[in-house]
Amino acid sequence: MTERLYSVQLYTLRNAIETDLPGTLARVAAMGFENVELWRFEQYRDAYRRALAGTPLCPLSAHASLVDGNASGAVRMAAELGIGTLIEPRIVAQRWTTRADIEAAAASLNGVARLARDAGVTIGYHNHDHEVRQDFGGRTGLEVFAEALDEDVVLELDTFWAEVGGASAVELISRLGARVRFLHLKDGPYTTTLLEQQPVGQGAMPVADILKAAPDAVRVVELDDYAGDPFEAVRQSLRHLVEVDR
């Protein structure tokens, strides 16, 4: 059986990170997480380094603006912190309207990947809903994008936003294949109202089918917002994922 890796995107706990980063990581570790996806690691680099040293948590991945940001600086800091995969969280919707625009965006990310290889850092991309809304001959923009990426550039499929955009997350995983190395998992009704998001297993998402479709992908809990206690949402999400993954 494949060993399941569970992580949490610390954007979910951003308010706590801003006030008590070490305490937040300690609470995450106490829930049973062994991995984290860092948020704003460039801003909190030294604080993360100190806090991670005091926990068993591994920074498997992190988000950073790569295409329109300081990619070389982000890659350098990622290598220093031991981050294995550095993920571009968003390329603006205006760059997903034509095939040429999408392929140009992929070329930009490929350029970052070439920069990162020597540092031992893998580059990835995280979708929202706009990457799947438009049809390109029976394929989503995300699939056109993936076909133009270098082989070692990976995808972090945000399963919720794929479904909100009108695509089946399970079918996307099937078509994108092994390039999907990370799954962003959240739940709720299929709406863009962030405060309506729910812990994994408490909404409309076909969670069990998604997990079965990507047995080797890292399971990353992430809520963009939540009306209740985000720590409790993360705890409930992890509990559900572990139960469903058995």
TrEMBL record:
One of its GO terms (molecular function) is isomerase activity. It comes from the Bacteria. Residues 73-241 form the Xylose isomerase-like TIM barrel domain. Keywords: Isomerase. This is Sugar phosphate isomerase/epimerase. PANTHER family: HYDROXYPYRUVATE ISOMERASE, INOSOSE DEHYDRATASE.
